[in-house]
Design a protein that fits this description.
D-Amino Acid Oxidase, Chain A, domain 2, binds flavin-adenine dinucleotide, alpha/beta, 432 residues
Length: 432
């Protein structure tokens, strides 16, 4: 008999569910309107409000409803392109500047959480990244050594016979550890950012979808389901949830589902065996997986891409449960309490960015790694708008190129995922 499907609301929402804020009348004017109340929008709102601007954040659902309250909470600051790919595109200096900014962005998040006293279970645990073949282990080992040398980041290779010091499995042929990555409770982080933004003087309006935006003399006209606002500046931070309110951006991002399953609470000795160093985990195949212990160290949260476009079909949950059991055979058949999904935003060159279009400012394209990048990019967009030097960034690129989405749906993704999945299966077969 197949097990019943688990709860489809995020596990994180049990401790910090996005909630409505008291409804306020919509102002007629604002210095800055920000669209989207996730890490990026709130990351922009805080410095702008602190600089004395009247800031109005408009959110289609309850504040924090998007990916920012649903993600894995791994503070990776990953970039999809490798350093060599970045060098080919931006030259040696450009690539090193981009990589150095990832280090600065991670450290800025740690500082922000501490200074603003955001209770979000942040722990700099380190991250183990498993290699599926001996060849991939060699690549990871060299990368770890190079990272330590270039940026002084504590990172080291883990040969096969030491893997069990970090993770309770024989699945990997070795791996790489970097100690500048940790974990946090994503929904508590976004709740904390809402608190900080409100205290700074920003207004946040939930249940207020923006339906259209247009430049007008001296600023922009922002139409919402609750009325129209004239804004001097607009910052768009809608990422994977971009909708008809910004048809231009919707043609430039591929919204992809990412899904996480949560196991029931496990015995403490099982958790200690599976996660002896309590690190975050990643497994870079064509279709990558990310997983971790919950912050209270009672359960496993296991995530990966979900190729479905709508509804809550059972397939992706069962697929993740099978992948979990491949890595941890003792979890085969474990009861799942939650399985939820959220949208990440990919773009053609797989780089996060800030850019301007029609006088509007954008912070978007976090390609599934926005816990570090979204707040950082939102903040950069805000500082640039204020004309402050802190607004300089190596991530100010051209707008993303057009992608062939239809009605906002990436119809081609199921095919892409099927192709990647087949390549992963071939690789796994080849090593047995
Ligand atoms: C399941 C999952 C796991 C992930 N795991 C990780 C991880 O472990 N580490 C990591 O670094 N990243 C991870 N990510 C990615 C990360 O969560 C995102 O990159 C990040 O939260 C993006 O923040 P944001 O503020 O740009 O967008 P969001 O938090 O998605 O916020 C966008 C908001 O815009 C609102 N909006 C959209 N259109 C309108 C409109 N017209 N009017 C008003 N409001 C609108 C939406 O309602 C939404 O609330 C994961 C994502 C998912 C879904």
């Amino acid at each position: 008999m197949t097990a019943p499907l688990p709860e489809s609301a995020p596990y994180w929402w049990e401790a910090a569910r996005p909630a409505p804020l008291p409804e306020l009348p919509l102002p007629e004017t604002a210095d800055v309107v920000i669209v989207g109340a996730g890490y990026a929008g709130l990351g922009a709102a805080i410095p702008l409000a602190r600089a004395g601007r009247s800031v109005v954040v408009l959110e289609a659902r309850d504040p924090g409803f998007g990916a920012s309250s649903r993600n894995g909470g791994i503070t990776s600051g990953n970039l999809r392109p490798s350093l060599d790919e970045l060098k080919a595109r931006f030259g040696e200096t450009g690539a090193i500047a981009i990589e150095a900014e990832s280090k600065a962005a991670r450290e800025d998040l740690w500082r922000f959480i501490e200074e603003e006293q955001i209770d979000c279970d942040f722990a700099l645990t380190g991250r183990f990244s498993g290699a599926l073949t001996p060849e991939l282990y060699e690549v990871k080992a060299r990368a770890a050594e190079a990272l330590a040398k270039r940026l002084g980041i504590e990172s080291f290779p883990v040969p096969k016979d030491e893997v069990r010091n970090h993770i309770g499995t024989d699945f990997y042929c070795g791996g790489e550890v970097r100690m500048d990555i940790g974990g946090l409770h994503p929904a508590k982080l976004v709740a904390g950012m809402i608190r900080v933004a409100l205290a700074a003087g920003a207004q946040i309006h939930g249940q207020t979808p923006v339906t259209a935006m247009a430049p007008q003399a001296g600023g922009h006209l922002v139409e919402t389901a609750r009325g129209t606002i004239r804004a001097r500046e607009v910052v768009v931070c809608t990422n994977g949830y971009t909708d008809k309110g910004d048809p231009w951006l919707r043609q430039r991002l591929v919204a992809v589902r990412s899904r996480i399953i949560a196991t029931e609470p496990l015995a403490p000795e099982v958790m200690e065996r599976l996660f002896p160093t309590r690190m975050m985990m990643s497994d870079a195949r064509k279709l990558s997986y990310y997983y971790r212990p919950s912050p209270d160290f009672t359960r496993v949260l296991f995530g990966g891409r979900d190729s479905t476009l709508a509804g809550e079909p059972a397939g992706p949950t069962r697929h993740l449960a099978r992948q979990l059991a491949m890595i941890f055979p003792e979890l085969d058949g474990v009861r799942l309490t939650h399985s939820w999904q959220g949208h990440v935003a990919m773009n053609r060159d797989m780089l996060p960015r800030v850019f301007d279009h029609q006088g509007r400012h954008y912070a978007t394209g976090f390609c599934g790694s926005g816990v570090v990048w979204a707040r950082w990019a939102g903040q950069k967009a805000a500082l640039a708008l204020l004309g402050e030097t802190g607004g300089d960034t190596s991530f100010r690129f051209r707008p993303p190129k057009l992608v062939p989405v239809l009605g906002g749906k990436a119809w081609f993704m199921p095919g892409v995922f099927a192709w990647y999945g087949a390549q992963d299966r071939k690789m796994l077969k080849g090593r047995t």
